[in-house]
Every structure is written in structure tokens, then in C-alpha cells.
Amino acid sequence: MKHHLIPAASDVEVFPDTTVFDVADLVKCKIAELEAEGSDDAFFVCDVGDIIKKDIAWREMLPRVTPFYAVKCNTDETVIRTLVNLGLGFDCASKGEIAQVLKHGVSPARIIYANPCKQKSFLKYAAKYGVDLMTFDNEAELIKIKELYPNARLVLRILPTLQVQVQCELGNKFGCHPDNVLQLLMKAKELNLNVMGISFHVGSGVEEAKAFSYAVQQAKDAWDLAVEMGFEMTLLDIGGGFPGQESSPITFEEIAIVLNHALDYHFPKDSGVRIIAEPGRYYVASAFTLTCNIIAKRTVARDIPENDDFKVGSPDCHHKQVLTQNDEPSHMYYLNDGLYGSFNSLMYDHAKVEPRVLNDSPYSFSSSVWGPTCDGLDCIMQECRLPEMEVGQWMYFRDMGAYTMCAGSTFNGMPRPSCFYICTSQLWTKLYPDEISDKRRCTKLPNHHHVDQSNVELQEIVGPISCC
Ligand code: PLP
């Protein structure tokens, strides 16, 4: 089905094709702009081109699987608009997310309400707007759906039982254990509901590709059972769990190879089964870089020497101090975003972050990095090595697009960072073929690197954008 392009975000800066973005250069450039305006606020830079490249790679490597972006991962309007125009479907978890996607003119047929435990009024909202594709994994949900949306198309979410390392566990809360599938399907039959698909989620940030092949096999077992019971099965939803950044323990390519094999074996092309997925972090993690200002600094002794008389800060400490190799000072840096803001991902998403600085000093010191609130819990990094920095300088963090700002608060009155968007014109015209004009072209980057080999390869794989 074709869809119409919605207008591009007016705030995306489009750079000439010859530009190869160096994140440090971009960050420097934005800092210079902000400082000229007198601002010291934390900010994101989002490379929209990175999202487009991810989509190109998805369609290359998983050609049978239509992505339905998991909106919860990053609800940024420019991200949603970009993905709408790339033709993705959307995995929504609530009335709010459904409304956000519908607002862009997305057809309800491009949405899956993929929350197996739905609030009744949200379910009524889905029924009102014709968002009829939804997941379930328990009897109470079936009873609710029977009452409020009896014609909905239902996708049974099973629990993949292979134990593998994941960044974020989901199986402790969702999924019907394979042993209970028969009973749940019998309940659906008794209620005369329309079960037409099977879904699973292997866990977010999965570290082993075999999690997918095993889950596909378990989905096939549930599928066969449903077919035997007379359900007309047409949809397989392989959920999320795909890596979104280079530092992930497993690559997207490794997963795609294993997954394609399992799909072709259990759900071959000629079966006519429609296959969708719900990727979240895959699309957005690496597109976002967060830059924070150092708003305060404290230097402390890292280790107290064995001499008990020595107390940091006591008037005579210098006289009594016995220098040892542990006496190197430690710097505590306070940034203007923290655990209650974008770095909530350290707690909720078990994320790992790496502070980077624009200072190229060869000397590094024991350091810790803290958020801006008055809570002692608000610590971004307890121990790392950094060149010595001063108040007013900046630190930046790459790969900050997934499960960051979407769950951040303004605790202590701390504002959320604003976001700047960039893209190269080559990728931008993939999205908006008619839109590029000299007016939109921006040449503000300090260093314009020339096209390198990776961009040449990219040009070769860029194909027509398909629609779902
Ligand atoms: N689908 C569902 C139902 C989820 O709960 C999640 C994440 O929690 C996702 C998709 C997205 O997962 P990921 O970001 O690992 O791709």
C-alpha cells in the first residue's frame, strides 16, 4: 500500500553530500553556536541520516520482515515523522502512543497495539479509531477484548523459554508459557475471538542470535496448535531485541543471518505468512548524541592514606599527608543532565555510557560524573579516567537515542535537553525527493570531510524506499 509523505520537519539541517559527520566536530559546532547565544543547556544532536541508513540496512538484511517501530523507545516527533515517511508500521503501547502516530495521518492498519495488558479506556480508544491488531497473553485480557472490541485481530504473545543474556528482561512480565498456550487458545475459541497471529519478544538488547531462532521455532509450535484448533493464522510478529549501536555485544547482521534461516525453515515464503517485527533501539540508539555542560566541579583526595590523622579538608592535612601512589586527586564533575533525566537509561535500561571530552590532553585523572539534582543517587559514572576539565566545559555521550529522553523527568526543575537534527542531502532526498533546495542546504559544519569509502558503499546499497 502506498502512503503519502507528510511534511518534513522544518528544523532538520541538511548538509551537502560530501559531508561525513564527525560527531566531535558536530558537537563542537553546536557548542560554539550555543555559547554565542549565551546558552549552557544540555542538548541532543540527532543524525536523521543514521535512522535512514538503519532502515536501508533492515530492508536489505531482513527483506521478509516489515518493521513496526516501537514508539516507546523514543517518542521524538522528528523520529516518528521520519519513520512514517520511510513507510514503517508502529508498535504502540498506549492510547497516547496511538494518538501520536495517528496524528501523522498513519492508517490504523499500520499500527499494532502491542501491549498484552491494556487499560479498558485505551482499548475503547483503539476500537474507536480502528486499531484492530493487538497482542494478548492472558485470559483476563481476552475477556476484556470480548467486551470492548470483539472483532479485533488478536496476536498471541508467547514466552520464549531459552535463557539467554539480555540487557532488559521482559519475560518476567509478559508472554504465555508454551505449556499454557493450548488453554489460552481454548478460551479464545470459547469466546469466539479472532486469533490470527503469534508474537514473541526475546528481550531487549539480546546478546545471542540463537534466542531468535529458538523463539521462531516455539512460535511455529504455537502456530500449528492454533491452526489445528481452526484459527486462520496469517501473521508472525518477531518483536524487538535488535541491537542499535556498534558497541552492542552482537551485530544486527549476525541476528539477521540466523533469523532469516529460521524464518525460511519454519515460515517459508510460499506459506504466505506476513512477518512483522517491533524494533525500538535498532532505529534510534546510535542516531542521538547528548552533550552536557559541566556546571560544577569538586576535587577530592581519591584514597585516604593509612595515616588515620589525615582528614581531607582538615587544616593540617597537608602536613600530615604521606604521599603514596594512591594520592592522585579525583575530580567530581556535575553535569546538567543526569539519572532523573536522559540518563534514567542507566537504571531502567541497564545502559552503559561513556563520557567523551573535547579536550585532547594526554593526561587523565580519576573522575566521577554526576547529574544536577540534589539526590546522591544521581551519579552517572562512579569511576572513569578523564583529562582535567573545568566548569563551563562540555562532555558528550554517544548512542543516547534509546530509552533515554522518553522516560526522563524534570525532577528538581531541571529542563529536558533540546534536540538539533541534521542529515546529509543524499539521505534526505531519499525521504523527500522533491524537497531539497539550496535554501535548506546548510554548510555550517566546521570541517567538511570528503566522501570516504563507507559512503560510497552506502550509495550502492541505497534503494527505493518501500512502503508497508
Ligand atoms: N515490543 C515490545 C512489546 C516491547 O516491550 C519492546 C521494548 O520494551 C519493544 C518492542 C522494543 O524492543 P527493542 O527496543 O529491544 O527493539
Automatic annotation (TrEMBL):
UniProt KW keywords: Lyase, Polyamine biosynthesis, Pyridoxal phosphate
One GO process term, biological-process aspect: putrescine biosynthetic process from arginine, via ornithine
Matching Pfam families: Orn_Arg_deC_N, Orn_DAP_Arg_deC
Coiled-coil features, chain-numbered ranges: none
Keyword Lyase listed: yes
Annotated catalytic residues: 374
An example Gene Ontology molecular-function term: ornithine decarboxylase activity
Family membership: Belongs to the Orn/Lys/Arg decarboxylase class-II family.
Function: Catalyzes the first and rate-limiting step of polyamine biosynthesis that converts ornithine into putrescine, which is the precursor for the polyamines, spermidine and spermine. Polyamines are essential for cell proliferation and are implicated in cellular processes, ranging from DNA replication to apoptosis.
Protein name: ornithine decarboxylase
Organism: Elysia crispata (lettuce slug)
